[in-house]
Amino acid sequence: MKTLGLIGGLSWFSTSVYYRTINELIHQRMGGSHSAKLVLYSIDFEEFKLIQVKQDWDALEKMITDIALRLEGAGADCIVLCTNTPHIISDQLRLSIRTPLIHIAEETAKEIVKNKMSKVGLLGTKFTMERNFFKDKLAASGIETIIPDDDDREFIHNSIFTELTLGNFNPSTKKKYLDVIAKLEKNGAQGVICGCTEISLLINQSDCHITFYDTTEIHAIAAVDFALI
Length: 229
Fold this sequence. Notes:
- By secondary structure, the protein is an alpha/beta fold.
- Helices cover 52% and strands 13% of the residues.
- The longest helix is centred in the N-terminal third of the chain and has 19 residues, at 12-30.
């Protein structure tokens, strides 16, 4: 079994889901008392928020790269960045590390292609929805991405930082998310991507009429696949 290098804490709520899911999958596949071999570096989320507010992506790149190199030094055979938005620096990160980066958007694209879908909605922070780092990975697989309107993007972005990353999951917020998903479906989305690892703690497939792509689960499965190759 290979050793996974996890960069978490963004937020710790979703990182705990990664940890649990990866270990559950290893146990299911290997049986006995098996659990995952991994090293985890958990970032102070407040430090990340300050970088994000400033949109200082150079500082983010330095932070994530330094951590990834520490994980490599600790024996990690790959890097798993346990969140969506920081993948904004993933191309630069790949140039600085020796081990593979398991990319959350690339793995999500594979799942969408498997389902023969060509148009999906994307939810996440404004950076994830509005910038191209996630959408470009989908486009490379022939997938068109649509995003919510300005007001809905603002609501989703704010709810992530004022509620979800603090562990607050309110019914009224959930209803608003489902309304946004319904609009995306009306605009032709065949599925919707949960492009923020906390959103899947608020809503899941049973809440949606269209296919719900939980990037946390998809990413965790890809990490386990890598570990057991």
